[in-house]
Every structure is written in structure tokens, then in C-alpha cells.
Amino acid sequence: MRRPRALLLAMALMLAVAGQGASQEVEALPATLIADSINFDGATQVVEAAGAVEVFYQGSRLRATRVRYDGLTDQLIVEGPLSLTEANGRTVFFADLAELSGDLREGILQSARLVLDRQLQIAATAITRTEGRYTQLYQTVASSCEVCPNNPTPLWEIRARRIVHDELERQLYFEGAQFRALGVPLAYFPRLRLPDPTVERATGFLAPSIRSDDLVGTGIRLPYFITLGDHADLTITPYLTLGQSQTIEARYRQAFRNGFVEANGALTWDDLTDDDQRGYLFAEGTFFLPRDFRLDFEIESVTDRAYLATYGYSDQDRLESHLTFSRARRDEYIEGGFTYFSSLRDGDDNRVLPNRAVNAEWTRRYTPPVLGGIASLGFSAHSHYRIDSNDMTGRDVGRISAVADWRRDWVLPAGLLLAVETELYADFYTVAQDSTFPENETRFAPFTAVELRWPWAMTSARGVSHLIEPTVQLAWSDDGGANVPNEDSAVVEFDEANLFSLNRFPGSDARETGTRLNFGITYTRTDPLGWNMALTIGRVFRKVDQGQFTQGSGLDGTRSDWLLAARVGVSDDLSLLNRALFDDDFEFTSNELALNWRGSRHDVVTSFTWLRADPAEGRPLDAAEWAFDASYDFDNAWAAAVDWRYDFVADEATRAGLALTYATECVDVEFSLSRRFTSSATLEPSTELGLTVALNGFGAARNGRGYDRSCRR
């Protein structure tokens, strides 16, 4: 009996009535049947559908060639090829023949295949469904690799006598499991439990990694992930080596209603030092408090200077632990906290460094009712302490400061922009354990400046805009000759960002003084097609050299070095930056060149930095370093990355690294090789090899790069 498909929805209602009895009142449509043809026998309550059959029930969808439904037994006989998709859309069955219950929750599928979350495929001779929760698969082969007719052997597979999939717990239980790579058996597991691909967090082992190092030896990391509820987890990683070094690593994370904490650490037993145990602890957290306040903390601690670099945990040479309480609003900023510093550099003595500091700050911005413009008022307090108790080397300093500033801009005829700016600093210092400074000192530092800009703008017919902006600023300031220690402003950087700043010292201990004329010209080109350019050239002229700046800063003398900064960019893919300081004879004080080139398959970041020697800044020799980092994705599953650091003054490489990755839909493999060439009193040169293999298809999908292979037709 042939009927149009549009009329077959009515047959679905007949199916529902047959299943419940003609005398019962139909409250809801339990199933929908669509097919090219349907035959219904009211006496036997048998419905037969053929040709592009589709059955919908409570979100589940069954597709088949032919379906026979027996209303008396509430059974479906389905002829394939068939597919059954669960309501969640993440579980799909394929089979040649199936016998299912009317609600599709129980039954048997023959010559079947199960696909979980479009990742893991499990082929079996038969599949049984029980209670809509348990799926049992017999004589199985599980893999997430693409299998092609001309290459039927996957990269990896797990063969098992039986697999049970618990949809509620989202776990896979293997019995008599054998792991194979390229068809070769490698391991046997009588019992094995793995999470299915829909699980994002589950207790169990993570991908192991192998590391070989000249100093530590060859070892393997075996991370074990432990869930501690929905908002916390713990990862324990034994790092076992063939030598005398054994390590336990740990990571703890917890999310709260108003914040989070994370802690990473390790404990090591080795024979590289005289210490019985070595280790480190890094922890951080943020909490959002009422009235827009937030609390941030960070803890960084290590047992010795060489531990972090030896075991590859961090390249930091200075550690900072702090506790900060702050609030940032549109016109107000509040901050207070404690900071502890610790240097890992050779030659640094933490006993004479100001490594304990307390800070507090309040700043308020407002608009004066009569003067107009923008004004701000701020107060701050700072104190730092040295462990050393000797005179001068044990100097302890406390400071209380207040600052008020005001700025207003006017637009003059011919497009000239006039700005007037003033600042006033008041500082009170107390100094202990340093006889070269007075015990108490008060300093007042007024600043004033007048600035004039004349922007010239033009837009071409193609929409390209050009902006030339000459700027001149006359500034004056004085600090009264106060004698206070300079702890936070020893190194000054002169660049386009502070060319027109009233005070170029980065901290609060030093204030720029004297009369100076700051001059500069900027040119900006903006192209709607993405080709952009920016150029800045400027210089500082002083009436009298106050002797505040070192030669390496480029700001010393009555005339500073020329500042030249240029940037060229092509959309977001290519950018070139060069910043240089040089005198009238074109002798360079510093030069920095940086290139960033990104594409769909490549990423190149390289820079060259040259600095003139300046003993006053702790640089007795010239510094010249080239850094190069690049990565490339090949037109297949392979990718490569390299990094390189070269010291031209020492005429030797300081670091080099190479990484190769192979990432497909079923496996991630990474091989890395790195070499640290430099040595110190606490650290020797070393070479490190690393290998990590991760099987995809168990647990949540990775967020990194992947290449999905497909069969060639």
C-alpha cells in the first residue's frame, strides 16, 4: 500500500493507538514514523515500513531500510544498514540488523558499531542495550583513528572480549583488553576502565611523558588526576628516573563562588646538591569581595637557586610573593598589600636586597568646578626592609607621599592644541641603618609644563589617512635638593611612550628636575586595506645638566640622544618595530628590532636587542642578543617549532630548542629537544629530550591543534 510521505504522520498516530489499545484515550504521541510505504494490520497489530524509514521517539532517531513493529510484543525488527542516534546527539549506533524495544532503550544489534561524541568508534559482532543505560559490546575493536579500505590498520586500537558502556556514569569498562599500535600488540589488561569522550573531568591517569636530561637522567612522568567534587581537583605526578633523582609533583585547583586558587609544587630527592630534599611551591588566587574590592595573592618559593631551571619548571630568576587588596572604579583606585622578593641570580645577596615591602595607595580623579580639565589627588605609603643589620648594606626605608595634578587642553585657531599641566609631590622619608642619609627627610617637588601640538591630517581618494603631528613641550620641575635614597628608579628607559612625560623615572624615589624642552614629530599612516605605519622622532633639550641620568639611558647631558621609533604593520599578520637611541654622530646607545609574522600555518617572532655598556645600570659590557621563535603547520598532521637565543658579545648560543608534533583525530605525539648552553655557579649546561604521547577519544576533546585524516577516494 503506497502513500505519500506527507500522509504518513497520520500512520504514526495509528501506531500509537495500536500500542495502547483502541479503547484507551491517547494523551500524547509516543512515537513518530516516516517511510516511503507503510502496511498496517489491525488484527495482528503489526506495522511494516519500508524505504527511507525514520522513527523518532523522545529525542532518539532511528534510520533504516525496513522496520517491522509488533504491537503485541512491543518489539522492533530493523533491517539495515541502520543508524540509531541518542537524544543527546553524542551517541550513535550503526548496525546491519537490530531487534529493539518500542522505546528504543533495549535490544540487540548485530554487526554493529558504536560512535561516542564523534570521536571514539567501537566495532562489535553484537551490541545489547539494557535499561537505556548500559550498552554491552562483544568481540570489540575500539579506536578513534580513521580506518580506510586501502589501509585498514589504525594507528592504535584496543581489542577486547567485552566492553560495557555506562551512559549514566559515562565510563567504559574493558574485559580482556589488548592495546595495539599499527597492528602490533603492546600491552594486555585483564580489566580496564576509561572515561568516554563526553567526560571533561574524571579520576584517572593522564598522558605520560618521557624526559631525558644530562643532569637529572632519563625518567617518566605519570600524572594521576583526582576529582574532588565539581569545583576542585588534584593532580599527583610521580617523576621516576633511572638515576638518583625521584620527584613527586602536585597541582591543586579549586573554584569558589567568588574566586579561585591554584597551587603547583614538587618535592625531589637527588644527589645534585648537598640538600636531602629540594622543591618549590607556586600558588596564586583571586577573590572578588563586596563593594568591588578584590583580593589577590601569589606565593613563589624554592629551596635553592638552581632547582627550577634544572627540572624545567620555570626560567624565572627572581621570585615574588604578594598579598594585594584593591579596588578599581571609574574615578578611584585603592590598593594595599605586602610583597616579598627573592633573587635567584648569581651574585645577588638576598640579605642586602630590599625584599620585604609594604605598600598602600589611594588615587581619586575629578573635574574642578572652576578650572575645568582633569585633576587627581593621591596618597601613598611604602616601606621596605633588609635582613642585613650592617650600616648602609642594611638600609631600611619608609615613605609617605601625596600628589596633586591638573591638566587642561584647549583648541586654538588653525587647529593648534594647547595643554597646561601641573603636578605637586610631597614626600616624607625615614631612613634607618644608613649613615649616608639623614634619618628623616621631607621633599617637595613641583612640576609644570606647557605643551603645543599642531596635527596635520589628510585623507586620499582611496581612503588612506595621513597624520603628521609636531609637538613641543616646555617643562620645569624641582625637588629642593632633597637627599633621599633611590631604590626604585635606578634604570630608566627612554622611548616614545615617555617622550612628553613630566617625570621619566619609573618609581617614586627620583624626580626629574630642571628646565627642559621636549620636542618630537609623529607620522601615522592608516590604510583601509590594512597597510599601516607609525613613525616618531624626538629629543630632549636641557638648560642645565642635572646629572640625574646615566649614559645608558640616552637622557644624559644637556641634549639627549635622538629617539627614533618606527612601526610597520600589514593587518594583524605582519608587524615590524624598530626603536633606536643615537647621538649626533650616529653612535648608538641602544637599538631594538622586532618582527612578528603570523599566518594560517606559520608564526614567526624574532627580535634583536643591543645595549651599550653602562656600569651605573649594572651592565659592565655591551649587551647584544638575538631571539628567534617560529612554528609551522605542515599540510598534514605534522607541525614544528624552534626557538633560539644567541649572545653576540659572548659569541655563543645561550639556548636552542626544537619541537615536532604529530596530531590527528586519534593521537597527539610531541618530541622536543632543547639545549641550555650557559652556565653559572649553581647551574651547568644541559641537554633535554622529551616525548609525550596522548590517545584522543577518551575524556574531553583537546583544545589544541589537530588534523583530521580522511580516506582518499
What does this structure look like?
- The protein has 713 residues and is mainly beta.
- Among the domains are: 5-200, lipopolysaccharide transport protein A fold (Sandwich), CATH 2.60.450; 404-430 and 443-602, no CATH class.
- 2% of the residues lie in helices and 58% in strands.
- It contains 2 helices and 41 strands.
- It has a 26-stranded antiparallel barrel. Strands 1, 2, 3, 4, 5, 6, 7, 8, 9, 10, 11 and 12 form a 12-stranded antiparallel beta sheet that branches.
- The chain starts with 7 loop residues before the first helix and ends in an 18-residue tail after the last strand.
- Mean pLDDT is 89; it is low at 1-28.
The end-to-end distance, rounded to whole angstroms, is 40 Å
Molecular shape: elongated
Fraction of residues in β-strands? over 45%
Helix tally equals: 2
List low-confidence stretches: 1-28
Largest sheet: 26 strands, antiparallel, barrel
Compute the average pLDDT.
Answer: 89
Helix/sheet category: mainly beta
| CATH homology superfamily of the domain at 5-200 | Lipopolysaccharide (LPS) transport protein A like domain
Rg measurement, Å: 36 Å
Question: In CATH, what is the class of the domain at 5-200?
Answer: Mainly Beta
CATH topology-level fold name of the domain at 5-200: lipopolysaccharide transport protein A fold
By CATH, the architecture of the domain at 5-200 is named Sandwich
Share of helical residues: under 10%
Q: How many β-strand runs?
A: 41
